[in-house]
């Protein structure tokens, strides 16, 4: 049994299921050469004329562009640029009605031709001298996409990694009226073959199969002549049947292979290109002419001249019709494409795009309008005519019900929208219309599902990232905490000391940063001097007062506190003695009855002072008063006597001696005895308080002794009074302490007054 390739070499052609035989009506245009049109006044160039995304706009309003200049840039694999069909000025970039069944507006560049048709610099390539990647780049930069109807980017379709068995060139052009490819093959067969050779270099197929219907004998002969003696180039004429030009149908006709549902021809080792695409590739590589024009069939009985024209991309449909002598009828229909797969447009300013192959302007009798839709009679004619072996009736029901699951189950995606089912339907049901709407809904649903899936993936990725960052932060914080604990344990107090030193340095720097002025420095110096002087005075006073404290007071209280109290008392007594006698007397009288003064302390202090003064007067005048004052308290008490009784007795004796010394020799001695009983202190006087008061009295006695020496007063009578006062000292323990204190104060005042009144 011969192999598939052997059968192809032998010229065998197979068949496909279904198909119809509508009137071709090609004889009106396939005998006339391709006409050249004048440059229109305006060109409307859509930015996207293919399956994919539009490119990035490279020009702005007001720019002058040259013929062949790129208007957009392909910044995506699924993008191909568009170019200026002629030189001119960019008037606007705006929305304009698109060449699509929906007639939706799309971004469009409006170009005003200047009539000069000035080319940009061109750089042709030699296919034998460049590599595959350079060829692919030139194909993309030239804006070439499939010109058979789908508009898939050519550079992607021919950039394959897997081996290719057959390269099929589709030259069938099976739809009625359309002869654009037929005339292109008749006039430019050599250029088409040159483009096929470039594709062969890119794909390296085992064989090239050129499929053409048997109603195009002139075109078939032209291709065979252009091929010449090339190996593995086969021109195969297939029976005239619609839709033989479908991709899957032509593959089945030439190779007897079927493309599985949902798969591509490349999956079975086949790549298919249109003859118009091969011609555009040849011009782009060999002449550096981008895809800026194409052959368009303009037919219909409303036209005076039906023919094929070479139209610039962006030319309004109305310009093509007017160039062919268009005479519009009432309710005139204009169809882009053939009568089977084309669609009517309402806006005749829709431009020619890369996939436009035919413009029909039929009369009502020639191609009647669709009649009212009727109910399906379930005749099954649509299933018999379907070239894809589908069930159009079931697809209609599920399309109306919008049951996308059932539509997928019945392979709606395999429908090529050829219109054969609608053509044979006796109920005039526009089946293809329902299928297109259902496909659009499915695409939208898939797009939304894809967006949702991508959004979910982004959300999951973000959630995972945040959780990972949270764990990383937690671990990092734990590590840092452990390091800090270890450092603290290792450094111990050294860290704290270093911190303290650092703080001290900072404080020093702050102080140095703020220097004191001269006045502040002097004031600070004086303050420190005053503090030092006060400290020295306190120290000297403490030393002087230390031996003054009585033994009884020293044993009862801390000597330091007693010395301080004695020093304060001496200073106060000295100040009072220097004052005037009258003021001293009045102040003594006023201070005596104070409610807060301790009566016992005052009485004891006064008695001790008078006794010491009398004893000092009896001693030699040359003796120092300080020594007399210090020795008096040391001799007063006896070791075996009670300290309280001895102090009281001494106080009474001193008081009497002082009074006798101040009075005249003739004075009554009874007067001196009066205060004896009054000034007798209570036997329970505190020894500590008595010692403090004695220190104050010694200072006063010192002053009085100095004054007695100046006045040459004899101290002799003091000895006579010393002995009789010992007995009363113990005989008055019941006297009122307050009265004794008042009497003692009065006595002292009188004594000072008399002393001051004596003449010098």
Q: What does this protein structure show overall?
A:
By secondary structure, this protein is α/β, with parallel strands linked by helices. The strands form four sheets. Strands 1-13-12-16-14-15 form a six-stranded mixed sheet, sandwiched between helices. Strand 14 and strand 15 (343-345) form a beta hairpin. Helix 16 (518-545) crosses helix 18 (559-578), helix 18 packs parallel to helix 24 and helix 20 (599-618) packs parallel to helix 24 (687-711). The N and C termini lie far apart (176 Å). The relative contact order is 0.07. The model is unreliable at 548-557, 580-597, 620-641, 664-685 and 710-735 (pLDDT under 50).
Fraction in beta strands: 5-15%
In angstroms, what is the radius of gyration?
67 Å
- How is the main sheet built? 6 strands, mixed
Which structural class best describes the helix and strand composition? alpha/beta
Mean pLDDT: 80
Total number of β-strand segments? Answer: 16
Helical content band: 40-55%
Distance between the termini: 176 Å
User: Which geometry do the CA atoms define?
Assistant: rod-shaped
Count of alpha and pi helical runs:
27
Instruction: Indicate the low-confidence ranges by residue numbers.
Output: 548-557, 580-597, 620-641, 664-685, 710-735
Strand order of the largest sheet: 1-13-12-16-14-15
